[in-house]
## 1
Amino acid sequence: MYPQNAYSQLCMVDTLEKMGISNNFSCEISDILDMIYRLWIHNEEELMLDMGTCAMAFRLLRMHGYDISSDGMAQFVEQSSFDDSIHGYLNDTKALLELYRSSQIRCLEDDLILQDIGSWSARVEYALKFPVYATLERLEQKRNIEQFKTKEQLKIEGFKLLKSGYRCLNCEPIITWISGAITNDEILALAVDEFHSSQSVYQQELQDLNSWVAQTRLDELKFARLMPSITYFSAAATMFPSELSEARIAWTQNCILTTTVDDFFDGEGSKEEMENLVKLIEKYNTPSCCDHIVLYRWDGHGEIGFSSECVEILFYAIYNTSKQIAEKAVPLQKRNVVDHIAESWWFTVRGMLTEAEWRMDKYVPTTVEEYMSVTVDSFALGPIITSAALFVGPELSEEVFRSKEYIHLMNLVNTIGRLLNDMQTYEKEIKMGKVNSVMLHALSHSGGGRGSPEASMEEAKREMRGVLQGSRCDLLRLVTRDGGIVPPPCRKLFWFMSKILHFVYMEKDGYFTADGMMASANAVILDPLQVTLLPSGLGTL
C-alpha cells in the first residue's frame, strides 16, 4: 500500500489522534506509520524535502516508538531554511508550527539539531502557548472537534484545497484506506459521538468519586484541598478512553489522598500526629528465612493506635482505598499487589516527615543533592502512578516494579514535578519557613554573600531549567524507546503525568489558581461541545 500522498496520510493519522478517535483505527495507523518509517529510512524526497511533511513524520514516528534520529531534520537547523523557501514566501504558519512541535520531541539533552530548530522556531510570533510536553490530549481534542470543518462547511466558507493536501486538521482528498472511504463529515460525526459518550462516563465517575470522598470522611478535614473535579480532570484529560475507568479512578483517588496528606504534613498536623501516621504505614522486613519479602505494619494498625481523629481519618482513607484498588486489580495482575501501593505510600510519607522536621527545626540542607534525595519521594507521585498502572492493560510482574527502569522513570517524573513546583512556589514557601531548591541553588551561587541576591536567584532558576530539560529528555527517551522491561502502556503514564505537571505549573501553581484549572476541567467533563454537524438533521450539540 503506497500512499497517494505522504503528507495526506500523515495528516490523517494526526487528525484521528487530535479528534480523539485514533483507537478505532489502530491497525490502519500502524500500517501507515510502518510505511512512513520505510520512507524515512530510505530518505525519500516526498517525505524529506517538504518541511511540514518531514517535521510531522518525525514527531509521529518518534512518539509512536520508532527508532529514528534527528539527522533527517538537519536541513531545517537554520531559519533561512524557512525564510528562503516557498513556505516562507507563502507565510505557511502551519508548517512552521509543525517544525516547532517536532523540535520539542527531544530524547537527548545535547541533540543540537532539535535544539537549534527549537531555538529559532520558538522566536516567531506563531510559537505555541503550550508546548507539546504541556498539552493535554482531551482538552485539545475538544478544541479540535469544535474547530473542525466538514467538506460542506469548507465549500460554504470558500476554502480552496491545495493539491498537495490541505494543511490543517482536515485532510483531502477522501482517504480510502479504512474499509472503503472515510469523509470529513464522518470523522466529525464519529468524534462528536465518542466525545459525548465519554463525557457521560466522566460525569458518572466524578459522581462516584464525590461519594468516595464522603465515605472516607476526607471532607471532614477542613484543611484539605480536595477539589475532586480538578484532580479527576488530570486523569480524564490524558487517560481519556472509556475503558480506562479504573485507572482514572485510582489515579484521582490517590491525587486527592496525596494532596490531603501533603497539607497535613505542611503544618496542619503536630509532630506527634505526623510520626504516628508514618509509623502506621512504615514497612518492616520479615524474618531472614524469607528476607526477600517486604511487609507493612498497616495491617497491624490496631496495635499502634491513633493519636488523633485526623490521623485515623487519613490512615483509613489510605489503607481502605489501597486495599480496594489492589482487589480490583487482581483479575488483571493475577496476584494481590497491595504491598507495592503500600511501599509507594511509605516512601512518600517518610519524605514528607523529613521535610516537616526540617521546617520545625529550621534546618537547611547543606546541598541541593541532600534536599532532592528527600523531596523527590515526598512529591508523592508514587502512589498515583503505581495504582493507575495496575489497570492500563499489561500484567506487571514483581520484576517490573523492582526494575531499575521503573524506579528511574518514577525518579524522573518526581524530579520534574519537584523542580516545576519549586520554581513556581519558592517565594511563598520561603515565607512559610520551608526549604526550596531555588533557594539552595541561589545560595550555591551567592559566593558566601558576596553576589547579588537577584542575580543569584536568576542564575539558580536558569540552572534548574537546564536540569528540568535534561530530566524531560531522559523521560521521553525511556517512554518512546523500543524494548525495556516496563510495558509501553505503563511507561506512557509517566509521560502523561509529566504533561499534566507542565500544564499545571505553566504560569503558577495550579492548585492555588483553581479558577483556570476548573474552567479546563469543566471543558472536558461538563461543558457540551459547540459544534454544528452537517448535513442538516444531525443537529447542534
## 2
Amino acid sequence: MAPHIIATCKQTRFHLLDDKPAREIDVENLTIAVASPLGEAEDSAKTKTKGKSKAKPEARELISDAHLRLKAGTHYGLVGRNGTGKSTLLRAMADKLVPGIPHLTRIAILQQTDTEAQEGRQAFTHEAQKQRNDERKPVLEYAISTDNYRNEVAGKMNFLAKSFESEDPMQPVIAIRKLRHDEIEKQLFLAQKNANLKSGARGLQARKELKSVEAKLQSSEELLEQDKEEIDAESVKQESQTAAETLQDLQSQFEAMKVIDIEQQARQILLGLGFKEDMLSKPFHTLSGGWRMRCMLASILIQNPDIMILDEPTNFLDLLGVVWLEEYLKRMRDSSQKTIVLVSHDRDFVDSVCEEIIILRDQKLAYFKGNLTAYQKDFEEQKLYWGRMKEAQDRQIAHMEATVRESIKVGKKTNDDNKLRMAKSRQKKLDDRMGVQVSARGGRFKLNRDLAGWHLSSRDEIDVPQDEKGVAIYLPDASELRFPGPLISLEGVNFKYKAATAPVLKEIDLVMHMGDRVGIMGLNGSGKSTLIRLVAGITTPTQGKVSLHSRLKMGYYAQHSIEELQALGQEDPTLTALGLMAKDVAGSLNEGQLRALLSSLGLQGRIVSDVPIRRLSGGQLVRLALARVIWDAPHLLVLDEITTHLDFHTVTALASALSTFNGAILLVSHDRFMVRAVIEGKRDLDHKLDDDFEGAEEESSEEQPRRRVVYVLRAGTLKVQSEGVEQFEKSLVKKVQKMLPAQG
C-alpha cells in the first residue's frame, strides 16, 4: 500500500473560492508530510510496549512552512537531492491535496511511480477492469484516450446521444437528470471544501451555500427515483428540450477539440519519442516498461491542461528523443500558456527548457529566475560575496571585542568613566548593529529604515550560502593486473539474433587497455546493449572473436539492474542491502568492510541494515547496484545507462569518482554531461564538478595521457566522433528540425 500524503497550508477566511481553474498558484505556509499506511503502523505498534494510545500512522515531514508559487505560462525546473520530496510534492499538486489549488484546475502528470500506482489499484475491481480494457487498446488509441477532460465530454455526449436513439421517449429525461445529479455531487464536494476552509462571515455564507447544494442534491435524488408514469407531459417536453440543447453544446465542445488534429498530433509525438509506424497499432499492454512510459509521456503532451508536470521524462529516451522533447517543449513555451513543472537529472535538458528554477532544500522552496546554469553561477557568486563580507566583519568584531576588553580593564583600573562608557557603547554596537550591512535593495543598511520588524532590536546575521551536504562517492582502485596487455579485444565481430535476419552488429573492432575511456552513444534499437552483453560475455558473437585478459575482473552495471533489485526485494520483503551484499561476496568481505564499501557510495547506517530493499529510493538502488559491481576492485567498468534515477548532484559526484578511477571505463549513456565529463574529460564550465575531478587538462602534463574516444553505433557499425558528443548532438538537432512541423 502506498504512503499517505498529508498537505496543509495557510487557511484564512479570505481563502480564494475554489470554483475556477487557475494556471497560477500561490500557496503560503505549505507543509507536506508522508504517513505510513495504517497496516504498517499497526505492525510497528505491535513491536512496541503496550499502552493506551492507538496505532497511528507516523508522518514524516518533507516540506515545512514553504511558499509554493507558480506563474502562468512559465516553465519551471524543480531541483533537489534524492529523497527531499520532489515527487511527493508533485503528486500532492496533481491530486489537488494542496488546499490552495482550485479543484477545477486541470493538471496532467507524468511520474515514474505511475506504473506502481496502477498496480496498486488492481484491488478495486471497477478500476482494474477499466485499466485492463485501456491497456488492450493500440498505442495510438491509448495515447489519445488518456485525456480525462476529453473523455468526460465524450462520455456525456455519447450517454445523451444513446438516450435519443432509444424508442422510449423517457430516456432523454432520465439521462439529463442523471447528468445533472452527477454535476450536483461535484458541487457538493466543492461546497463542503469551501465550508471547511472559511470562517467568519465568509464561512457563514459558505455553510449556507452548502445547505443549498445539499437541498438540490436531495431534490435531484427524488427526481431520479420518480416513476416514469408520474412525470407529467410538460416536464418531459422541457427536460427533453434541455437534453437536446446540452447534447448540442457537448458536440460543439468536442468538435472544438479538433479530434482529427489530435490524432495527427499524437502520431507525430509518438514518432518523435522513438516509436516506429508499425508499433502504433500494437496493444499497449505488449510494450516493455520503457516504451509504456514513452506512450504515457505522449498522452500527457497532447493534452491541454492548465499545469503540466513532468517527473524525469528523459529516463527512457535516447538522445534523439531527448533532443526532440527539448525542441517540442521550447516551442510550447513560445506558443502556449501552459505552466510546466519539470524534474530531470539531465542538466542540458533542464537548461534548454526551463526559464525559472524551484529549489527544494532544507524543507523549503526557493525560486530563481533563470536556468540551472545561471542559478549555479549566481549561487557561487553569492557564496563568495557573503563569505567575504562575513570574513571582514569577523575581523572587525574581533578587533572591537579586544578594544572593549582593554577599555573595561583600563577604565576599572583608573576609574575612568569615559573609558567605561566607550566600552559600553561599543558593546551595544556589537550586540545590536553587527550583521547584514546592506539593505534588501542593495544599499547601505540603516537601522531605522531597514530593520525587518518593530519587535526586532538587531539586524540579521550574515548567512553565507552553503553547499548542500551531498553524497560523496569513492571507487576503489582496480586490482593489480600483474602483466600488461589489452583488457578486451573485439575483432571482426558480427551478431545476428536469427540466422535469416540482418546482422545487428557488423565488423566491430574494439580494443581497451587499462585507463582507457570509451563512450558509446546511439539511438534506441541500434544494438548498444547487445554490444555490451558481448563484451560482458553474456552472449557470444555470430562471427568474429572476443578476447579477454586472463586476469581480467570486469564490473558490469546492466541497464535493468534496478528492476532486478526491485524483483529481489519483492521476493524477500525482509532483504536489506547489507544482507544482499553478504550473499554476493560469499564471505570475501566481513560486515565492517561491506559497511565501508556501501558508505563510500552514500549508503550508511540503518539504511543498509534495517531498511528493506523494496523501500529504497531509485537513487539508493543505483548505489547498491554499483556496490555489487565494484566490491572486488574490477579492472574494467562496463556501465549501461547508470544515470537513470539519479539527481544531478549525484550524477556530478559519480562523474568525479569515475574520473579518478585508474582502471578502464566503457560507458553507454544518453546523458551528454556524463559522456563529456567521464569520457572526453572535459571540465564543464557551466556545471560545477568536485575539486578532485581529473580530466584531460590534468593529464596534459603526463607522458602518456588516457585514450579517450566517443563512438556512435549506427547501422550496426561503430563510428568515431572526432568532435565527441557535440558532433552527435548537432546531427540529431538537424534530424529533429525535419521531424517537427514548420512553425506558422
## 3
Amino acid sequence: MSTSQDAGEIRRLDETVVNRIAAGEVVQRPANALKELLENCLDAKSTQISVIVKQGGLKILQIQDNGTGIRRSDLGIVCERFTTSKLREFNDLKQISTYGFRGEALASISHVAHLTILTKTKDDQCAWKCTYLDGKPKAPPKPCAGNQGTQITVEDLFYNISIRRKALRSPAEEHARIAEVVSRYAVHNATVGFSLKKQGENSVDLRTPPNSTPEENIRIVFGSAIANELLPISFSDERLQVKCSGLVTNANYSCKRCVMLLFINHRLVDSVGIRKGIEGVYAAYLPKQTHPFIYLSLEIAPQNVDVNVHPTKHEVCFLHEEAIIEAVSKAVDEKLLGANQSRTFYTQSLLPDAAGLAGGGAKKSLTEARPKDDGGRVYDHSLVRTNAKDQKLTKFLCRNDNDDSDAAKLQATASAATASSSPTPESSTRRVLRLTSVSNLLKEVNTRCHEGIRDILRNHTFVGCVDNHLALIQHHTSLYLTRTQHLCEQMFYQILLNDFGNFGVLKFSSAASLSELAVLALDQPESGWCEADGSKESLGDYIKKFLCSKAAMLEDYFSITIDEHGNLCSIPYLIDDFVPTMTGLPMLVVRLTTEVNWDTEEDCFRSICQELARFYASPPRPEHQDSQEEESGAQSKWCWMTEELLYPALRQHLLPPQHLAHDTSILNIADLHNLYKVFERC
C-alpha cells in the first residue's frame, strides 16, 4: 500500500466553523458562560442579579439584572464578534477598567446555544425581545412587557458540539461550579444582591442581600466557622502603584484545601505565584496538610496590567509581580503575627462517641466510670461540683403568672401591637392522626439519635448563659459550650412532629394582617427583595391570598388560625409558659409562602415544621430594642427562659441527631480529669 506525498490544499475555513472554534475557547463550560454574563451585568451597573439554572446550566442558564439595559438599535449586532461599547482602539486596552471589552461573550454563546435577550432601558416605553443563532437575530426584535435591565436566557448549551457536551461533568458538578462563580462575585461585589436557584424549585441555593459587606457575604456563603476567624488585610505602595485589601483567616482556622478568592482590578482571576506566596507564610502557623481561606482584592495601575492573555480572562499579567507577591505575603505575615496571641483550640473530639460513629456497635460514655480507692472515697479529679437538683433563687424571678404583660403578652410587630397568650388546655382525648408522612419523619428522627449527646442533655446541669446564643452546661466532670438556637431548632422540630395536630393555641389580642406582616418582612435586608420582584404591596397581597388558601390545613394541623379577612389570629403553643420572640413573625409569614414545598405531603410537613422551629428558637435581636434598658430587659428575660424553660425542655424532649457530634452545637471546653493532668505536670 502506497501513501500519497502530495501537499494538501490550503482552504479557508467556513465562517461558522471559525466562530464555533473560537466559541469553544471562550465558553468551555456553563460556568464560563455565566462568568461572562455576570461581568456584563456588573458593567451595566446592576444592583440585583438573579441566576436560574437547569441541569447544571446545560439545559437552561438564565441571568437577569436591573442595570442600564441594551438599546433597541444595538440588538441587531450585539451578538456579533468584536462588537463592544467599552473599546474603541487598541490603545484603550492600556486603560481598560471594565470587565468586558472584546465583544466575544454573547457571540460565542450564540454559536453554541440558543440565545434569547429581553432588555429595556430607562427611556424605552416597553421591553424588547430577540432570539439569536450563530450571532445573527432570527427575527427583528419584538416589543413585550419587562422591567428595566436585561434578561439573557441560554438554552441547550453545546447542542451542536456533542463531543464537548459529553466531556463535561455531571449536572450536579456543573451546578457546583456555577455556584462557586456566583458566590465569589457576591463576596467581592457586596453592594450588589445575588441569588441562585434551580429552575422549578422554591428554595434558593444562594442569596446575598444588596448593600452588604464582604464579611457578611462570606458568612452567608462559606459559613460562620470562616467568618468568625477573619482578619482584615490592607496596604498600598505608591512605588509599585498597587493597593491591596482583603480578609484572611487567622491561625485558629484551617481546611484541607486552600480557598482563595483573588480579584485584580475587580476581575476574578487566579495567580499561582500569589497563592504559593501566601501559603508559604501560613506554613509557619498551620499544621501540615492544612490551608487557609483567602480573599484578596488588588488594584493595580491599569497600564501595568495585561488582561488579554487568556481566552476566558482567567489569568492576567502584571508588572512587578515578584515585588507585589512579596508585599502581599509580608502584610499577611504581620497580621498573623499580631493575632497569634489569641489562638483558641476546639476539642470536639472529647465528645462521647464522636469518634466512634462510623464504627457502630455499642457505645459507652466517657464519664460513666468514677475511680474510687479501696475505702470508697471519690478522687478529687472525679468530683461533680454542682447538683442539678439544687434550687436557685433566679427560678422565681422574671415570672408572674398573674401579670399579662410578661408571660401572657407577645410583642408583635414593629407597629407595637401586642398579643395575649391564651393557650388552649390539652384535651383529655388526644387526636390520633395516622399519617404515613408524619410517621416517616418521626422514624427518621429516632434512627438518627446520638446516644452520647442524649446522655449529656438528659443529665446536664445548667451553668449559665454566655449571651443570647451561647450557654454553658455541665455533665459530670465536663463543661460544655452549647449553641442554644441550634439545639432548640432541633427540639421544636421534634415537638411539632410528636404533637402533630394536637397543639395548644397562642391567641393574639388583636389579629395581625398577613399582608402588613409580609411588607414588614420585605423591608428587611435578609428577605432579598428587589424592585424586579414587584412592589412590596402586591407581593404582600399575594402572600395573604396564598396563605388564606391553605388556612384550613394550617389551622387543623398546626393551630395557625387565619380569619376570613386574611389576619393571623393564633400560632401553636409548644412549651408551657414559653412565648417566642415576635420580631421574627413577619419573616415567618414570608418563609411559609416561599420556602415550604407545597407539592408533596411529606416535604410540606417537614418544611413547615422546620420554618416554625426556626421561628420559635430565634432569640431577641438587639437592633429591635429602642433603648439600652429595653435591650437589657429583653436579654435578661431570654436568659431566664433559656435556663428555666428551654433547657429543661431539651432535657425532656430532644433526641439529638448525629451531626451534632461533628459541628459546633456542643463543644467540650474543659474537663476536670485533663485539668488535673495539667496541674500534675506543674
